[in-house]
Records
---
Amino acid sequence: MPGAVEAVLVGAGNRGARVYGAYALANPDQLRFVGVVDPDPERRASFAASHGIPTERQFRAWEDLAARAPLVPTAFNATLDGTHRASTLALLAAGYDLLLEKPIATRPEDVLEVAQAAERHGRMLQISHVLRYAPFFKTIYDLVRAGDLGDIVSIDWRENLVYWHYAHSFVRGNWSNATRTAPMLLTKCCHDLDLLVWMLGPRCERIASHGEQRHFTSSKVGPEVPARCTDGCPYAEQCLYYAPRLYLARLAEDPHNFTVNAITLDHTEQGVLRALESGPYGRCVYRCDNDVVDHQAVLMHFGSGQAVTLTMQGASYVEGRTVRIDGVRATLLANEARNEICVIEHGTGAQRDVEIPNARGGHGGGDWGLIEAFLSAVRGERDGLRTSARESVESHLMAFAAEEARISGQTVTMDEFRASVQQRVAA
C-alpha cells in the first residue's frame, strides 16, 4: 500500500489491538500491520483476521519473531510490562525500529540498559508518552514555556483515578502487584512525571514521598465475604466494587470499553459473567494479592527552584488530572475531565479561558498524535517527535527514586540516585 508504513504488532491486547490496530484500520494509507505476536490464540487470531495477516506471519512469542530476519523494519511493542526489557533488547538487536509502551522496564538499571541498547544498535526507540501529543497538555506546555505565567514558583499536579478504574487495573488487574510489574508511580504516573520534566527541564534535584495501600486489604472485611463476587457476597448490593454490576455497566456504556476488553473477547452479558466466574476480574477487591499504593504524594525540587507536588489517588468520582501552576505573574488552573484551562493575571485578577485544539483518538488525542509522529519519523521526518528514549529515562528514574523515598521515609538526592543506577548498569 503506497505510503503506508508496514509494521509488526507485538502484543495484541488493549493497547495493541484497540489503539495501534484501530489506527491502522482507520488510516490504511498511513499504517499497515503485516505481522502479529501474541501468546493468546484468540487475540492473535482476531487481530490477524482484522488486518489480513497470513498464518506464517502470526507468532505465539516475541522470541520467535526476534530469532528470524526482520519481516519489516518497524515494530510496535505492546507487551506486558514485565517483558519490556527482554523483548525490546531482542527486537532492537534483530533490527527493528520500535515504538514501546511505557514503562520502558520495571527496574531502573533495565530502563537505562534499554535506552543505551537502542543507541548502540542505531535503532529508533520511541516510548509511548502519549500525553506530550495531547492538545490539552501541549497547550499547558506552550503557556509555561512562552512565559505567560512568568517564572514558575510552584506546581500542584493531581492524577485522579475514578474508583472503578483503580480497582480494575490496580487491585484486580495487571498492575496490582509491584513484584509482578512495577511501583504504582511508574505504571500509572510516569506520564505525569514525563510532562513535568518536559515543562520544567530534566534536572529534578530532590524527591520525597509518602503513600500506602490502606483500603483494599483483607482486614477491611470479615470471614463471611467470599473470595469472588460471584460466590454469593452478602454485601453485593452496597459494594461499589461488586464485579458483575461494575462490568455489566461498562458493557452497557461501550461494548469495547478497555475494562471489558481486558476480561473477555465475548462482549455479551453471558460472556462477561462467565469470565468473572473464573478470571481475576471477578475477585473480591478485598481478597486480591495487590500491594501497590492507593494514594501517594510526591514532593519534588527542580533545578530552577520550583517546588512541585504530584498526588495520585484512586478514589475519585471522575477520571482526570487537575493542575495548578503558579508563576510570578499569573496562575494557571486546568481540569482534564472538563477540558478546561484558564489563566488568572495576578495584577488585575482578569481571567482568560484558553482555547484548546480539537483532539482525535484516545488519551485526549495523544494516542493518534504519537502514532503519527512516530510514523513520520520512520519515514525520515523527525521534526514532529517531542521526546526520545533517553529523555524518557529521566522521568522513569524519578518514579523509582520516589518509590525509594516512600519506602525509606528519606529524601532522595537525584544525582546520587542516577549515579548509583549507572554504576549498576556498568558493573
---
Amino acid sequence: MVKNIDFLGHATFRINGSKTIYFDPYQLQSDKPADVICITHSHFDHLSLDDVKKIARRDTVIVCSKDCVEQLTPIVDQVIGMDPFQNAEVGEISIESVPAYNIDKEFHPKENNWNGYVVAMDDSKVYHPGDTDKIPEMKAVQTDVAFLPVGGTYTMDYKEAAEAVELINPRYAIPMHYGSIVGTDSDAQKFVDLVGSRAVIM
C-alpha cells in the first residue's frame, strides 16, 4: 500500500491506485489529473483553489468540509460537502469523514465541523486526519495507513502524533504537516524514532 502513496509536501498526499486521489493539494509540482480530491477544511494551505484547478477535470469528484462547497462548485460537476461522521461512495471508493479539531488551541475549533477522512480503495484504507490534535475519536479509526501531523503550533506535535499511533494502531504511520509552513524534518525524524518500524518518512 505505501508504495502507491506519494507525499507531496505539507499535508498533501496522492494515492495512486485504481483511481487517483489527492488530499489537500497545496503548492503542487505535479498536475497528474485527479479522480477524487478530499479537502479537510478551508484554511489556505488545505483549500488552495489554484492547486485544485491544476488537477481537477469536470468529472473529478471533490469531497470537502461544508464550508468549502461554495468555492469549489464552479470547478467540477460534483462537490460533496460532509460533516464529521458522514459517509460517501464515489464509485468503488468509500469515504468516511471523521472529526478534526484542536483541544488546547484556537485554530481549529470543534464546532467548525472540519474533517479528517478514512478512504477505502483497492482493499486498503488510508486515514488523513486534517489539522487536528490527538483526539478521543481517533480510537474508533480503523485504517491500514495513517498520515499524522507532527509540526505542532497548529496541530499536534511529534510526541502527540506518536501517541495517536497507539490509539489508531495502523500498519503504517506517515508524518505530515512539516517542512513548509510549520514543522521541520527533525520533527518527522523524531516521530519515526518514537514510533519505530511502522513509521515511514516519504
---
Amino acid sequence: MAVRVFDIAHAPEIEPGERKRILFNSDAFHVWIHGDWPGFEGHMHKHTADELFYCVRGACRFHFPDGAHHDLTPGTMVVIPKGEPYRIENTGGEYLALFGTRAEPDGMERWDAAGRPAASDTEGGRRHRAQRPRVKGRFTK
C-alpha cells in the first residue's frame, strides 16, 4: 500500500447532501473528513470501535446520553471509546470540518443506545439532514 498525504486544512467543503468524504479505508481502519453546515444536529448513535474527531474548521458540540457535552473548535479533538453513544451538533455559524478516524472499515452499521440500528442508518434516517446512503464506504449517486 502506498503512503498517502492529505491537506486537511485546505480540503474543499463537502457539498450539501453529503457529510463524509472517505480519505482512506482498509479492513481495520478508516479516515475521513466530516463536514456539516450551520444548524445541523445529528442522531445519538455509537460504534463498535474507538473513534477520534479533530476539529479543523468551525465549532461543534458532542452530546452524550448523560447530558454531558464537549465543545470543539479548531485545534481541539475528542476521543470516543467504542460503545459510547454520542451525537454531533454544528454550533457555529459556518461550515464545520472534522477530521475523523475509526478502528474499523467504513460502512459498519451504527447503533443507538438500546443496541438497535441507529436512525441515521435506517432507510428513513438516511434522508435525515441530507445524508446519503453509503455502500461499502462510498456515497451512492
